Amino acid sequence: MCCVATAKPCRPEVYLRETAAHPASTPALAALAAVAEGAANPLEAAHRLSDAVADAIAYMPGATDAHTTASEALSRGEGVCQDHAHALIAMARHRCIPARYVSGYLFADAEGESHEASHAWAELWIAGLGWVGFDAANRCCPDARYIRLGSGLDAQDAAPIRGIARGPGTETMDVVVSVPEPRPKPVTKPVSAQVAGPRHMAQGRTLCRPRNCLLRTTRHGNSVARQHHQG
Predict the structure, then answer these.
(1) CA angle (76 as vertex; 173, 150 as ends), nearest 5
(2) Are strands 118-126 and 130-134 parallel, antiparallel or unpaired?
(3) Which residues are 122's β-sheet partners?
């Protein structure tokens, strides 16, 4: 385990703290975190940790609840996005990698199915890149489909809404999430492409990627999936 020195809240080292939701000292989580040993760099180590969580905890709605810890989900071998995020955070912190919980929404998963509930993933601090998101539940990294609401040490710390109910009686909550697909912005054609004519218009376009943006390519059978990392 690593010792966390006193740090200001704005420093990544703050996110090396353990919480009740993801105690990194449990033997099972520590053993699983060993998969990062021998990684060429911190980014590869983070990918190994995320893949290990996805392999160890199968996505199963209803298998856990809001109070399930990372170690409990790991022992059951199934859980939801909250459990994947907590387990990845615990393992990353065990490897002295600052990690935080992110709450938000997902427009559609890897299969294109729309989501009707909130979503959660983890962000790991990678030196030279900054905070890089990892969604172990969907085996990918957050991209334009993800809507980020907030972050914290764990799910409770990053909850967008919290409250206290007093008095007798019971209550229930029905939540419906609607994330409309944004309209694509019109593309302004370069003058050189307009002059060249339709046959050469594609050559006049420039595809730009933001700085600190990495592409990781993963092969699945005969298909190739590109995962997006943005600091």
Answers:
(1) 45
(2) antiparallel
(3) 101, 134
d(CA 29, CA 11): 25
> Taken in order 49, 50, 52, 56, is the CA torsion positive or negative?
positive
Q: How far is it, in rounded angstroms, from Cα 156 to Cα 58?
A: 22
Q: Indicate whether 178 pLDDT > 50.
A: yes
In sequence order, the β-bridge partners of residue 121 are 102
Amino acid sitting at position 67: H
**pLDDT tens-digit series, residues 79-94:** 999 999 999 999 999 9
Residues 94, 29: Cα–Cα separation, whole Å = 8
Chain centroid offset of residue 84 CA? 9
| Other beta carbons within 10 Å of 194 | 11
In 1-140, the DSSP E strands lie at 58-59, 78-79, 99-106, 118-126, 130-134
Tokens of 120: 């959660």
Contacts 24+ apart (CB under 8 A), 75-84: 75/28, 80/137, 81/119, 81/120, 81/121, 81/135, 81/137, 82/120, 82/155, 83/57, 84/53, 84/54, 84/57, 84/59, 84/120, 84/121, 84/122, 84/135, 84/136, 84/137
CA–CA dist 48, 37 (Å, integer): 9
pTM of the model: 0.70
